[in-house]
Amino acid sequence: MDDQQRGLTDERRAFVEAIRDFARRECGTREQRDRLTGGGLESHSSEIFGKLAQLGWLGVTIPEAYGGAGGSIVDGCLLLDELEFGAVPVFGLGVTLITSSAVEKFGNEEQKKRVLSSVCDGSVKSIAMSEPNSGSDVGSLSTSAIRTDSGWRLNGQKTWITAAHHADELLVVCRTDRDAPKHHGLSMFLVPAGAEGVDIRPIPTMGGEEVNDVFLQDVEVGVDSLVGQQDAGWRQLMAGLNFERLIGAAWMLGLARRAFHIMLSYVSERKQFGRPVGTFQSLKHRVADLGVEIECTRLLVYDVAQQAEADPFRQMPREASMAKLKASEVARRTALEGMQMMGGAGYATEYEMEHLVRRALPMTIYAGTSEIQREIIGSTYGL
Q1: For the chain, how many structural domains are there in total?
Q2: Other Cβ atoms within 10 Å of 118 Cβ, number
Q3: Where is 55: in which H helix or E strand?
Q4: How far apart are the first and last CA of the chain?
Q5: Mind listing the pLDDT tens digit of every residue in the chain (383 residues)?
Q6: Do the Cβ atoms of 150 and 209 come closer than 8 Å?
Q7: What's 106's domain CATH number?
Q8: What is the dihedral of CA 27, 32, 37, 40, to 10 degrees?
Q9: pTM (predicted TM-score)
Q10: What DSSP assignment string belongs to 313-336?
Q11: Which long-range contacts (CB under 8 A, 24 or more apart) does 21-28 make?
């Protein structure tokens, strides 16, 4: 039993082994991964996502009543952690789980049946919050939803929206009361990605096509598209932060573990001056430090996940932000240290480390920057 499986139930250990076996079979070689991602330009494979649906894993955190497995946030973290460690290209999974969690918490019964069952069947969902002038300061968003005789009319622009170009549906956060105070008057709407007036444009980034601009021009949606209570969107967003940050932390932990694994394999085999380069003190101690950091991160992420599992309604702004902050910073550090210790091989596109560096660098920006996480953590200490 490896460290990752320590403390897990027999059922969860079997789940981890099944994910690893899947990753080895489907994405175990560079050739397989290149075929699935267009040579590394795409981070999400619909083919692989469909296979995960067939295995029933996409519904791991969805209640059995809606076709899911009825698992907890711990199970969701294990899935994302192991898929990322196994280099399985399903970038849209994290945001899909975050979106489905919001619908499960606040949607009506009809919305739950439709949305959650479609996730289990393999559809990608995306949540649209950020705007050109409203990133970390989400409460200042200006995309509007105006009541009409038949429903709502949406206008505005969202940006940096993860996996929107793969999604069949977007959960769009809009302002429904322009006269309300800053963090009031916001609401959530389910919007078909193919609805008239929705224009999704991928943003080229160093990681390929992962995020998007979403333009909404006179988009008409029905009254049944409102998720939860009108003007209560901010409270609903805050209630989902534990889940969102833990999902991000687990994904980043998996990336850090993969970078460490690849680096360790290289420095254990590469020889200079008649011995493996990893046996030289300058590298051995760096490897040791990274190993400590990753183990601390693993313990933190799964401890917070277990607390959330025990009390799903408990707000944990400090703990969840700590997990996201630590995992994202460790993922970036591990990938950069790995590149340095692998020398030219770490920089060459022939090897995987340069790809992991490109994946890891934005991790401290995604899902709330490290600076914002520190602000939140500091505030919980009364500062």
Answers
A1: 3
A2: 19
A3: helix 46-55
A4: 43
A5: 676 677 788 999 999 999 999 999 999 999 999 999 988 888 999 999 999 999 999 999 999 999 999 999 999 999 999 999 999 999 999 999 999 999 999 999 999 999 999 999 999 999 999 999 887 888 889 999 999 999 999 999 999 999 999 999 999 999 999 888 888 999 999 999 999 999 999 998 887 788 999 999 999 999 999 999 999 998 998 888 788 899 999 999 999 999 999 999 999 999 999 999 999 999 999 999 999 999 999 999 999 999 999 998 888 999 999 999 999 999 999 999 999 999 999 999 888 999 999 999 999 998 889 999 999 999 999 99
A6: no
A7: 1.10.540.10
A8: 100
A9: 0.93
A10: T---HHHHHHHHHHHHHHHHHHHH
A11: 22/51, 22/55, 22/86, 22/88, 23/82, 23/83, 23/85, 23/86, 23/87, 23/88, 24/86, 26/51, 26/88, 27/86, 27/87, 27/88, 27/89
Of 301, 281, 171, nearest in space to 236 by CA: 171
Residue that terminates a domain, selected from 218, 233, 248: 233
Which tokens sit at 57?
């894993």
Question: Are residues 183 and 73 located together in one domain of the fold?
Answer: no
